[in-house]
Amino acid sequence: MYRLLIVDDEPAIVDGLVQQFQELPELELDVCKAYSAHEALAIVKATKIDLVVSDIRMPGKSGLQLADDISFYWPACRIVLLSGYSEFEYVYSAIQKNVDHYILKTEGTEAIVAAVRSSAAKLTEEQRRQAVLERAEQQITAAEPLLKKQFFEAILLGEHASDIRRSGTFADLPLRLDDSRPLLLVVGKADLDGRGESYTEKLKLFYSVQEVFERHLPSMFTAEHVVHDHSLLVWFIQPACDKGEKFTGADGEMNWRDVTTYLKGVLEPVQNECSSTLGTAISFALDRGEIEWNELGAHFEQLKFSLKQHAAFGQPMAVIDLGMQDGLWKADAARPAQATGTFNQKLGLLTKKLESGAEADAAMLTEELLAGIRSDLAANYLLGMERYYTLLLAFIGQMEDLHTASLPVIELPVEWHTAQQKFSGLAETICREKKARIEKGEHLLVERIHQYIDEHLGGDLSLARIAEAVYFNPSYLSRFYKQLTGRNISEAINTAKSAAAQTMLGDTSLKVNEIALKLGFESPSYFTAFFRKMTGSTPQEFRENLFR
User: Fold this and answer.
1) Structure confidence at residue 376 (pLDDT)
2) With contact defined as beta carbons under 8 Å apart, do 282 and 271 qualify?
3) pLDDT tens digits, one per residue of 216-256
4) How far apart are CA 490 and CA 31, in angstroms?
5) Vertex 47 angle, CA 44 and 52, to 5°
6) Of the candidates 126, 241, 233, 232, the residue with the CA atom closest to the CA atom of residue 182
7) What residues pair up with 254 in beta bridges, in sequence order?
8) Which of 71, 4, 1 is nearest to 34 (CA)?
9) Separation CA 74–CA 157 (nearest Å)
10) What residues contact residue 126 under an 8 Å CB cut-off, 6+ apart?
11) What pLDDT is recorded for position 318?
């Protein structure tokens, strides 16, 4: 949707053009009007304007001067100038100011509408080109570190690297790693218990640990790193193709177990420096060997869980190797649990369904999550417990300010079938209350719009002003109102003005031109044309019929 401003010191011309463009819904225009250049400038200073149709000769400030002001505030605005004179000086000045069209008023409204259509098409094309340029710039600007973080975070949450790469955002993201070769995964956790660092202090510490790690990592390795969930440091590591011969077996294949063993030796000085220089104990977990990119999420979950198990024993500066045959952490950490990423994805989807009031979907997702948690408890008890209470927290978060019953089950269920029924019922109850609240809010919004229109029938009823009054985005408000009511806001305004006019016409003390002014019509002739269109009779005919 574009916002069109019509400016002329002749009210009949302004009102006529406003009506003309409001009757062209396919253009999707929010039409504003001004009866002087100074009134137009006040609108321009407060509201984004996309298109302007302006008279060139006006008292106080000409259309050419106004074009300069508009270009200052909204450089992308397209301008159409109207004139009753085909003077070369005006035409030349308009061209110099990059005005789209210079139209004689004698050419009629069809020429003006065609000019606005042309300017709107230019705006659309400019926006398309700008979007292409912005996408190109995004790939070569400082956004690259953030994109890398998002890319690796998505992988750790269980999404396949190949699927992420196919998306437009990450398709051309440059990485130091070769995503056609396997890699190693190292996860680190700093012991921050009792230290009370702020978020900024933690970030500074994590960056310092990363710097220490990269300084000790031999040049034969290439690495990318990310801080996950504000608590874990994760490194993705590959031996360089031309420097990995020391780890190559007689068969010419890379011995990834030897690479992992060597990396464990590298981690020792990293831990020592972090302890002595940063005053922080760091524990690391490594996987058993090479990992394919699409399997990184599953292996990360195992490493993360092994660090959690280790933390329960309180041993500082551990190096957990899941590849050791007799390793303390291997057996539990390697047992299968619910697919990595599936739990988080389903939990996020459940939250959205609860918010939107989708009862059936929310109940189904709740049952699937509980079934997965039951399997997790059998594989990794601590992981299953963590996920169960995470699900509880998700429900608690949705129950705030709702008149729902308390949680059906707090402790781990014994009768899982009964628990699933109770949780599914709670999900449906939350959805019903959320949906009712959404519908109530929608009705209140429509009432507030109608109230504002009724209270400002003679004032500014542009979409931008109404949206400002109800705290909405103007473009979205137009679509949202039509979705709720089945009609445009302009139709609601016209209906309200017509109803008010009919009421006022019953008061014989008011003249027709006075009624026109009260309803925002500067031109009595335009008011008469409007009233005839809405009721089928002129104001005077309507009044005569009332008292006949």
Assistant:
1) 82
2) yes
3) 999 899 999 999 988 899 999 998 876 656 777 777 788 88
4) 10
5) 50
6) 241
7) 248
8) 4
9) 43
10) 76
11) 86
Structure tokens at 45: 């200073």
DSSP-derived 3-state class of residue 282: strand
Calpha distance 16→60 (Å, rounded): 23
Residue among 209, 184, 192 nearest 263 (CA): 184
Residues of the chain under the 70 pLDDT cut: 85-98, 136-143, 194-195, 242-245, 312-315, 325-341, 400-409
How would you label 478-490 residue by residue, b for 16+ Cβ within 10 Å and e otherwise?
Answer: beebeeeeeebbb
Structure tokens at 462: 């542009």
Considering only CA atoms, which of 523, 526, 518 is closest in space to residue 11?
523
What amino acid occupies position 409?
Answer: V
Helices first, then strands: H and E counts in the chain: 21, 10
CA distance 23 to 29: 10
Distance CA 31, CA 478 (A): 12
Joined tokens for residue 358:
């989708």
Amino acid at site 71 = S
Angstrom distance (rounded) from CA 435 to CA 431: 6
The token pair at 15 is 């009102």
Beta bridge partners of 223: 237
Interacting residues of 143 by C-beta distance below 8 A, sequence separation 6+: none
Supply 64's token pair.
Answer: 């050419």
**What CATH number labels 2-138?**
3.40.50.2300
Could you state, in order of their start, the residue ranges of all structural domains in the chain?
Answer: 2-138, 144-333, 342-414, 456-546
Q: What is the distance between the alpha carbons of residues 3 and 90, in angstroms, rounded to a whole number?
A: 26
pLDDT at 196: 73
Q: Is 473 left (phi over 0), alpha (psi -120 to 50) or beta?
A: beta
Q: Do residues 24 and 36 lie in contact, with contact meaning Cβ atoms separated by under 8 Å?
A: no
Q: Are 254 and 290 in contact (CB under 8 A)?
A: yes
CATH number (3.40.50.1010, 3.30.70.270, 3.30.70.1060, 3.30.530.20) of 144-333 reads 3.30.70.270
Q: Which tokens is 326 given?
A: 């007799």
Q: For 456-546, which CATH superfamily applies? A: Homeodomain-like (1.10.10.60)
